[in-house]
Amino acid sequence: LQLVESGGGLVQPGGSLRLSCVGSGFTSDLDYYVIGWFRQAPGKEREGVSSIHLSDGGSVYADSVKGRFTISRDNAKKTVYLQMNNLKPEDTGVYFCAADPSFDSISMDALTSSYDYWGQGTQVTVSS
Known about the structure:
single chain, mainly beta, 7-stranded mixed sheet, 4-stranded antiparallel sheet
């Protein structure tokens, strides 16, 4: 399974970006997978941002992004999106998407659990 992120860039505070995560080579039915977005800022640990279950679209968000970020999926395109609005400097970091087929349902555990497959990441910089 391969994951490719895109959509990162430089944006001013208050601006928006939409990240995409395209998957290929899924080894099981898509309905078994959770796709998560994670980020890592320089000198900080990686943190879970949002996750979505591909079967029903159920999703969870970290408190730091709730109300500003929206995760969605298009199973036909094997793509998960992360719409990021009202971006803040503290949102700066490398954003990774990850996939795992072992979740029965979505819960906040998806933001801290281990994932089997990871993309290479896309840089998001929020600065004036």
